[in-house]
Design a protein that fits this description.
Layout: E1 2-4, E2 8-9, E3 14-19, E4 22-27, H1 29-35, E5 38-42, E6 49-50, E7 55-61, E8 65-69, E9 74-79, H2 82-85, H3 89-92, E10 101-105, H4 117-124, E11 131-133
Parallel strand pairs: 1-11
Antiparallel strand pairs: 2-3, 3-4, 4-10, 5-7, 6-9, 7-8, 9-10
Length: 134
């Protein structure tokens, strides 16, 4: 399992990368592997207010329909439009082209606990073997 050291993670398997007051959000490699082949992604609209720890989207895979949870409080300022026609990009490149949304983070980031790569690895171990990388 690929767990990147330059990202933070939620217990529900979303990843987040901060760039100033912006948070880029996607599904972790472990999360997408547990979902299986992703068939449909329902993204929020730009301008949607999201709350850390609460659902912002749904993803439909061959295994199930699952909610995705926001890692922070804020407003959606960008969505990855390419996923509308090709949601499988999340399976192929979860940390790159498979990003889902960008959130402009509120001053009050929220109460969601974010995990570093070591803590996230501990969460999913022994379910998988960690290959932490940059």
């Amino acid at each position: 399992m690929n767990i990147r050291n330059d990202l933070l993670y939620t217990r529900s398997h979303e990843w987040v990368r901060f760039d100033g007051n912006k948070a880029i959000v996607g599904i972790s490699d472990y999360g997408q592997s547990q979902l299986g082949d992703i068939m449909v992604l329902v993204c929020p609209e730009i301008g949607t207010v999201v709350t850390g720890g609460l659902p912002f989207s749904e993803v439909e895979s061959v295994k199930a329909v699952s909610s995705l949870f926001s890692p922070v409080n804020g407003v959606v300022i960008a969505i990855n439009d390419s996923l509308a026609d090709a949601p499988e990009i999340i399976n192929q490149d979860p940390y790159g082209e498979g990003w889902i949304i960008v959130i402009e983070v509120d001053a009050d980031r929220g109460q969601e606990v974010l995990l570093d790569s070591a803590a996230y690895s501990g969460l999913i171990e022994p379910k998988s073997k960690c290959a932490c990388s940059e």
